Predict the structure of DUF429 domain-containing protein.
Amino acid sequence: MSVLTAGVDLAAEPPRTAVAWLDWSPGRAHLTRLDLGADDATCLEAMLTADKTGIDCPLGWPAPFIDFITAHRAGTVRVPPGVPGLTWRRALTHRLTDHVVQARTGLRPLSPSADRIGHTTMRCAALLAALAGQGHPVDRRGTGAVVEVYPAACLKLWSLPHQGYKRTRNLTSLGTLVDRLRDSAPWLDLGSYEARCRVSDDALDAVICALAARAAALGRTTTPSPEESPTAATEGWIALPTIPLTDLAP
């Protein structure tokens, strides 16, 4: 029996959004569909049809940031006495999971409250609400239909190039990454979409998201501890693979 995972490399608008579907059957994982310029309907389709969908986007905002905005609206903001501005503001920019990922991988995820990815996070929030509206409540800790993933961290943990392959000027590096991925996962069949992965880092990131979703579906990704779980339930949790890429082989 085959299993379907999907990967969504989400951007604020469709032109930079890619969605990949991987069909896992005995002996191989086949890339059956790869959409570039994916609109909300396509993203939602992936979440509804796949057994597990990995999304490259924060599933929430830092809890201290939400508290700060709420206090600002009420006119009750209190600045910690004696704490430099940059120091207390930093507490508002990154989530618990972002700090955990940085400690584990050395990579610092973008801030959903103080970076351009905030626009993408807003789009993601609307998609998750639409998913819940169709009877699929979302657990932002990743135990449900969707899980938050981070392609760069996955690549690094899988000993693959994780930097320098973005944008048109780095197509050679992107092609090298595809070669390395195929060598490391000979069971991965990119089919007719391989050429697309060699010219679009969005397309390849969507494939990486679908691979990470497979690791999550197998229960082989990081999960929040009991102490971290309440915060992760609102902020979201980045699931990092805890097994080598080779161990994803069907």
About this structure: The chain has one domain: 3-60+95-248. Residues 3-60+95-248 form one domain. The mean pLDDT is 96.
